[in-house]
Amino acid sequence: MSWTNERVELLKKLWTEGHSASQIAGELGGVTRNAVIGKVHRLGLSGRAKTPAPASKPRRSRTTTASTSSSSRPSAPQPQTQGATALKMETAPAPVAQIKPEAEPIAELVPISERASILTLTERTCKWPIGDPSSDDFYFCGRSSDAGVPYCAHHCKIAYQPVSDRRRDRKTVTARAS
């Protein structure tokens, strides 16, 4: 499809009459709405006439009585939107994530007498690392653990969470986000 002089003139006429790009594309045939918009911009056509709105009743403004205004609390001003509102931003406040309380401080959990270094670990001691491995005060929990389990009962609760709990926690996080 090429833009002939006749088609360009028809485009200009329809545009100034206030027709939409989709309507013009349908009238011209063989051209898309985006092609019409592109041609309008290349031609430098400016604003156009508004399409006349159908006659309607004038809107009445709402009046609030003293009894209703005193019982309702004042609301924040809402942003005004025009046109399509499919992607309108929600005005509700964003949900705040609940922070789980952390476990007891590690220093109180593991007495100094039970702390273990890499050299003192056995298969029956808790191998939960505590601190930064590059620092001098790094150690392992060192409490006794059950056979076949690398951690003590407290650290097992942290390390091994039931699948249902993880799924429930994940659902609450996604429900808050949406």
Question: Overview of this structure, please?
Answer:
The chain has 178 residues and is mostly helical. Helix content is 36%, strand content 2%. It is built from seven helices and two strands; from the N terminus they run αααααββαα. The chain has a two-stranded antiparallel sheet with strand order 1-2. A hairpin with an 8-residue loop joins strand 1 and strand 2. It is elongated, with a radius of gyration of 35 Å. Mean pLDDT is 75; it is low at 66-70.
Q: What's the helix count? A: 7
Overall form = elongated
User: Helices and strands, in N-to-C order?
Assistant: HHHHHEEHH
Find the structural class using helix and strand composition: mainly alpha
Widest beta sheet: strand line-up: 1-2
How much of the sequence lies in strands comes to: under 5%
> What's the total number of strands?
2
Instruction: Please state the average pLDDT score.
Output: 75
Uncertain stretches of 5 or more adjacent residues: 66-70
Distance between the termini: 46 Å
Rounded to the nearest angstrom, the radius of gyration is 35 Å
Give a short account of the largest sheet. Answer: 2 strands, antiparallel
